[in-house]
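>> Question from a student workshop board

For tomorrow's exercise we were told to take the sequence and the ligand below, predict the bound structure, and bring the output to class. My setup keeps failing. Could a helper post the expected result so I can at least see what it should look like? The ligand is S-adenosylmethionine.
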Amino acid sequence: MPALPDGDPAPEDGRLPDGLDWSRPLRAYVHVPFCRARCGYCDFNTYTAGELGGFDTAGYVAGIGQEIALAARVGQPQPLASVFFGGGTPSLLSADELGGVLRQLDRAFGLADDAEVTMEVNPEDVTPQAAAAWLDAGITRISLGMQSADLAALTVLDRKHTPGGAVRAAELVQAAGFGHVSLDLIYGIPGQSDESWRQTLLAALSAEPDHISAYALGVEPGTALARKVARGEIASTDPDRAAAQYDIADETLAAHGFQWYEISNWARPGGECQHNLGYWRGHDYVGLGCAAYGTIALVREGGRLPAPASARRYRNKTDPQKYMAAALEGARAKRLEDKGRDERSTTEGSSEDLDPETRLRERIMLGLRVAEGVDLEASAAELGVVGWTKERRRSADRLGKKGHLVIEGGRLRVPRDAWLFADGISAELF
Ligand SMILES: C[S@@+](CC[C@H](N)C(=O)[O-])C[C@H]1O[C@@H](n2cnc3c(N)ncnc32)[C@H](O)[C@@H]1O
Ligand code: SF4
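>> Workshop helper replied:
Here is what the output should look like for this input. Compare the format with yours to find the bug.
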């Protein structure tokens, strides 16, 4: 997910405002911040056992249980359309712990009958027993971090699995009964030739997943990879090479029956990730666990509007121990005698209210990343704002003439040969 602004500090009572509108599809993201080792390129909110003094997975899961109970108390829970366990390394939780979180979500919100439940898994954690236990626990979809089939590329990335490990892992989870399997790949790795990238794509396809994500390697500030690049030990990434490798991915995947549906995502028909599609379509989601983001639509005071206008976005405390301490306190009021006032704990680190205009801008930005595009007129009507302002119409026409935007009635989408410019195109629309 793209980085979001930190926003204002959370209110001390940690409660969401009255009037939350839970009537639209609701989804849940659960962040698991543990990793055995930090890969040199990764700047996600993750911690090793050494940094945390061990992995207190039971304590963390108990904290999530408390947060679920709080989230269900402050709104009108409705069945979750999807759940996504992301990380970090969710496969470091036991199947019992994962199943326990799902049971709590089911009790608090309900899980839709056809709910998609995805779990990110590191290939080295897959065994036939683990895969069977994940299926029993209620996971329906596995997303494996393969990255590359090339040993040299895996070494640049500091990954622990062997080149064939992810393909074997995909085969094992399929043999256990998983019908939905996705593989994450990375291109634009320094030293990675086009041929090596093609071989990685073919290796991934040989595992017969129904979904593949391919990300351009980002050299993120503060990572070991960035330091090695700065010292000249590893060449910097080449944007032209990465663009060429993106095209190779699209051609290779299309030739094997995969359809592009988001900038970095391809699927066989029916294999699209419903959870992420919901995010790109602007659905609401409850974020659980440290550093998780959530966004819930609000209705104005005095009653429900026919459509949700504003929304509240929050981000939980990023530090797992601070998150756990706050969550375990259960966001209960706690009188601090010495301060003489009520002080309540909250799992939120920060939050902000998004007005309808901001929400429309986000809908357009996210919608232009997906092949289906975004229905500007329907979104604007739903949010109660003007979709086609004069300026937006002018920008859209200008982008259309350049071949960067297709306008079909109220719907906007970015054509195939302009996908790489999607973010710049949405910026120009404002
Ligand atoms: C944050 S990981 C979490 C799941 C799991 N631990 C794993 O490594 O697969 C999810 C995916 O993000 C992608 N990713 C992380 N850092 C990246 C970077 N700097 N550039 C490109 N992709 C990145 C990787 O493809 C990875 O599979
Ligand atoms: S890429 Fe995955 S395994 Fe590696 S540090 Fe990031 S979250 Fe952990």
